[in-house]
Specification:
binds magnesium ion; six-stranded mixed beta sheet; single chain; 10 strands; binds adenosine-5'-diphosphate; 262 residues; alpha/beta; Rossmann fold
């Protein structure tokens, strides 16, 4: 681990060419994200959030600007070198889970290890350990269609974790989930962050952003606000409070934090 920030972008830009027209999706973003941070990226549809995440994840290349990941300038790397950095540094989670439909949960989680050249017995052991970590060891042989949305997203997180990354990038990970399932997923992400994993997640829900320690707001391809969250809500506490409310046991200590209806 380097001494400096985990992520450092300088005047990062991305333009898409559509026919003769150039669409500026990201108009010059400069910022740093430190080791262990939990950052929420917010902003209206089309403001450049996914473009930014794809650049951070090395899934796309900037048109201009510089990107240093854990001290290494990855801007000019070849496709293979970039893929290698990506595999050892970060995991990516998508709104639509992106699991292979014909593969079991275990095979889906093990997939990045196939690319990393890990032998089959070791792949299975490590994939199962990650499924255990997300509470799904007993679903290892289920296919995605045999799992709920929340369980599928947990499999996707286990897959993102299997290479032991320092950074998890998630683009609207709760976008396809109901309120309680979203809370459960956020409790898992907060637990990972407690254990030192840096998180950057896109969300358009303020209730979800409230679990982060820092919120970046995008508009028209730029960061228009960058603010710290004083005391982030704890998803596990909200789940417990909701359970108590449902059973009529006790009023939660701080009803202000319970604006969770969709
Ligand atoms: N592959 C693409 N080709 C052309 N334009 C794109 C492409 N992807 C995104 N854009 C445009 O870039 C802008 C930012 O998109 P995006 O990063 O997906 O926004 P967000 O994730 O905040 O909704 C939008 O104007 C969008 O239409
Ligand atoms: Mg998007």
């Amino acid at each position: 681990m380097s001494e400096g920030p985990l992520i450092q972008v300088t005047d990062l830009r991305r333009e898409y060419r559509v026919g003769e027209v150039s669409v500026p999706a990201l108009g010059g973003v400069s910022l740093e994200i430190g080791h262990g941070e939990f950052v929420a990226v917010m902003g209206p549809s089309g403001s450049g959030k996914s473009t930014f995440m794809n650049l951070l994840g090395g899934l796309d290349r900037p048109s201009a600007g510089r990107y240093r990941l854990d001290g290494e300038d990855v801007t000019g790397l070849s496709a293979d070198a970039l893929a290698a950095v990506r595999n050892r540094t970060l995991g990516f989670v998508f709104q639509s889970f992106n699991l292979l439909p014909r593969a079991s949960a275990l095979e889906n989680v093990a997939l990045p290890l196939v690319y990393a050249g890990v032998k089959v017995a070791e792949r299975q052991r490590r994939a199962l350990a990650q499924l255990e970590r997300v509470g799904l060891a007993d679903r290892a042989h289920h296919r995605p269609s045999q799992l709920s949305g929340g369980q599928q997203q947990r499999v996707a997180i286990a897959r993102a974790l299997v290479n032991d990354p320092r950074l998890i990038l998630a683009d609207e990970p709760t976008g396809a989930l109901d309120t309680l399932t979203s809370l459960e997923l956020m409790a898992l992400l907060q637990e990972l962050n407690d254990n030192g994993i840096t998180l950057v997640i896109v969300t358009h829900e303020h209730d979800i952003a409230a679990f982060a320690r820092r919120v970046l707001s995008f508009r028209d391809g730029r960061v228009v606000e960058d603010r710290a969250v004083g005391a982030p809500a704890r998803a596990a506490d909200l789940i417990r409070d909701q359970g108590q409310c449902a059973r009529g046991e006790e009023t939660p200590s701080d009803p202000e934090t319970l604006h969770l209806a969709p």
